[in-house]
Amino acid sequence: MAISSTALTIASAVIGAAGTVFSGVAAMQAGKYQQAVANMNAQIADANAKRAIERSAIEGQDNDMQTLGMLGAQEAAQSASGVSLKSRSAVLTRKAARELGRRDTLNIRQAGEIEAYNYKTDAVNQRASGNLAAAQGKGALIGSFFNAGGSLLSAASSVQNPKRFNTWATK
Q: For the chain, what is the largest distance between any 2 Cα atoms, rounded to a whole number of angstroms?
């Protein structure tokens, strides 16, 4: 018993449609996976931002302590040299050293804030990239349904009117 060309056309259309749908499902799953990876990367970037702030705060405190130590050493050196600690020059020297130390601390903290901002920006970009991948996966799935439907309709049309696609058919 031979299989009719109509049955073969229908079987071919169904298999093609199923393959298209499975490709769409795979694309959607890949998009979900990419979104999960991007979200994990965003969480890491958020944690790095927090660590940058904490590290710069600690480094700033360390710098403040170094500045205080330097001011103490400066005062001791001034006192040991016989310079009056209340003289204008000695007071201005210590004041300048204190201000420079404070600026260093503020620069350290600002660098930490800039680093944290960069990490936070990366986290936002990672999340957006993940959302885009998920949306593309959904779009591929929806597109696969339309393509499969189109294949089935095309096969149904050719089965219903075989002469339409047969250039050898007689009129």
A: 123
Specify the 3-state DSSP secondary structure of 138.
helix
CA 157 to chain centre: 47
Token readout for 73 is 């050493």
| Whether the Cβ atoms of residue 78 and residue 93 lie closer than 8 Å to each other | yes
Cβ count near 137 (within 10 Å): 22
Distance CA 134, CA 19 (A): 21
pTM flag (> 0.90): no
Calculate the CA 76 to chain-centre distance. 53
Characterise 82 by phi-psi region: left (phi > 0), alpha (psi -120 to 50), beta (else).
left
Give the chain's length: 171
Residue 167 backbone dihedrals phi, psi, to 5 degrees = -75, -15
HSE of 46 in the Cβ direction (CA atoms, 13 Å)? 11
- State the 10-residue block means of pLDDT for the chain, 171 residues long: 72 85 90 95 97 97 97 93 91 95 97 98 96 93 88 78 54 49
Write out the H or E segment, with its range, that includes residue 54: helix 5-80
